[in-house]
Each structure stands twice: as structure tokens, then as C-alpha cells.
């Protein structure tokens, strides 16, 4: 794989890791960003706003839009034990919405046409463990999984359980990384276990996700 193709396929996860590291560095070396964190925490302290963000996430995923952006509006400002259930609720609701919508459309359209290899991978490996792996590891667009699941008629119970468990792990890691990064910026000290350990886990997810992506792509082309 060339460097250009690697960067293209893993742009999202690499951007996440890069922004976290950049944010920690800027927060420590450039100035005092406490006003940003205070504003974010004040806004997310409103339960109605949090509920609205969860609904927004569900709507975005339902219509194959980037619902993962909501992670950046919640995770840095809300403790993981609160953020993860909120993010999982929005994601799973959006996943079911996309599943239902694709089932009604009954055709290969929307986000599916841009990722035929992933549709074929789900056609061949749509069981619980493979579906959970795709939900857990970075590199697998959630909207494509949602729409492909509905179009292919994957068992709804399996789809729902694998999605819920996989996203609990994924959003747990992401929330820990982003919340830890925000605390590191606020404290001016990045070399703390609660910052470094989640980053290490994220790096592992990125590595395994990259390998799985290539595995499924080769399987779909075989």
C-alpha cells in the first residue's frame, strides 16, 4: 500500500489522534485555553442541550451524515461514564434509523456506492463477531454499515447487539482520550497515566482497525 492510499483510507482516525496530540501540545505550550473548556462544560451541563446533541447524532447517522462529529461536542467536556451512554444512545438510534431507511429503499444507493468492498464484506461476514469488530475498530464508516445492514437484511437483533457492544468499546476509548486530553490541557501536564493509557489503546485500535480493513477488502475482492 502506498503512503497516499494509506492516508486516504485512514484519514479519520489519524485526524483524531493528530488533533488530540496537537491540542495537548498547544494547550501546554501556547497559552491558557481554560475559557474554551469552561464554556464547553457550561454548555454541556445543560441536560436539554445534551439531549439535543444525542437527537442530532441519531438524525445525522440516519441520513448517512457525519454523526461522529457530535463526539467532539460531548466527549471533551463530559466525564466518560456520562458521555459513553449518551454517545451510544445516539449512535445506536441512528444505526437503527439507517438500517430501517436502507431496508425501505431496497437498493444499493446512498453511502454504499462509495464503499463496495465493505458491503461485500458484510454480505460474506455479517455475523455477530465480525459486525462487532467493524463497530469497535476505526476505519469502517458507520453509515455504510448501517445502510448495508438494512439493505442486506442482516438479523436485526444481531445488528443491534453487535452495534451496541462495539460502540461501547469504541466510544469508551474515544471519550477517555478526549476527556483526558482536555484535563491535560487544563492542568498543563500531559504525562499522566489517564492521558497516556487511553492514547495507547487508541493507537492499538488504529493498528488493528487498519489490518482488519485490509483483510476485509482482500476478502471482498477474492
From TrEMBL:
<keyword id="KW-1133">Transmembrane helix</keyword>
<feature type="transmembrane region" description="Helical">
    <location>
        <begin position="48"/>
        <end position="75"/>
    </location>
</feature>
<feature type="transmembrane region" description="Helical">
    <location>
        <begin position="194"/>
        <end position="212"/>
    </location>
</feature>
<feature type="transmembrane region" description="Helical">
    <location>
        <begin position="159"/>
        <end position="182"/>
    </location>
</feature>
<keyword id="KW-0472">Membrane</keyword>
<dbReference type="InterPro" id="IPR032816">
    <property type="entry name" value="VTT_dom"/>
</dbReference>
<feature type="transmembrane region" description="Helical">
    <location>
        <begin position="81"/>
        <end position="102"/>
    </location>
</feature>
<protein>
    <submittedName>
        <fullName>Rhodanese</fullName>
    </submittedName>
</protein>
<keyword id="KW-0812">Transmembrane</keyword>
<feature type="transmembrane region" description="Helical">
    <location>
        <begin position="12"/>
        <end position="36"/>
    </location>
</feature>
<dbReference type="GO" id="GO:0005886">
    <property type="term" value="C:plasma membrane"/>
</dbReference>
<feature type="domain" description="VTT">
    <location>
        <begin position="66"/>
        <end position="178"/>
    </location>
</feature>
<dbReference type="Pfam" id="PF09335">
    <property type="entry name" value="VTT_dom"/>
</dbReference>
Amino acid at each position: 500500500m502506498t503512503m497516499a492510499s494509506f492516508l486516504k483510507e485512514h484519514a479519520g482516525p489519524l485526524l483524531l489522534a493528530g488533533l488530540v496530540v496537537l491540542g495537548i501540545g498547544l494547550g501546554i505550550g501556547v497559552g491558557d485555553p481554560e475559557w474554551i473548556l469552561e464554556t464547553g462544560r457550561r454548555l454541556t451541563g445543560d441536560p436539554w442541550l445534551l439531549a439535543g446533541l444525542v437527537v442530532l447524532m441519531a438524525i445525522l447517522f440516519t441520513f448517512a451524515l457525519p454523526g461522529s462529529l457530535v463526539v467532539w461536542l460531548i466527549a471533551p467536556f463530559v466525564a466518560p461514564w456520562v458521555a459513553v451512554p449518551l454517545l451510544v444512545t445516539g449512535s445506536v438510534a441512528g444505526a437503527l434509523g439507517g438500517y430501517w431507511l436502507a431496508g425501505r429503499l431496497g437498493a444499493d444507493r446512498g453511502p454504499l456506492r462509495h464503499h463496495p468492498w465493505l458491503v461485500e464484506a458484510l454480505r460474506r461476514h455479517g455475523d455477530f463477531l465480525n459486525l462487532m469488530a467493524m463497530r469497535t475498530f476505526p476505519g469502517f464508516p458507520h453509515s455504510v454499515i448501517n445502510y448495508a445492514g438494512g439493505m442486506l437484511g442482516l438479523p436485526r437483533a444481531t445488528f443491534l447487539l453487535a452495534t451496541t457492544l462495539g460502540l461501547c468499546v469504541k466510544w469508551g476509548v474515544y471519550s477517555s482520550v478526549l476527556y483526558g486530553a482536555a484535563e491535560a490541557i487544563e492542568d498543563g501536564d500531559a504525562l499522566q497515566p489517564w492521558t497516556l493509557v487511553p492514547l495507547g489503546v487508541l493507537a492499538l485500535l488504529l493498528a488493528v482497525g487498519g489490518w482488519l480493513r485490509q483483510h476485509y477488502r482482500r476478502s471482498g475482492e477474492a
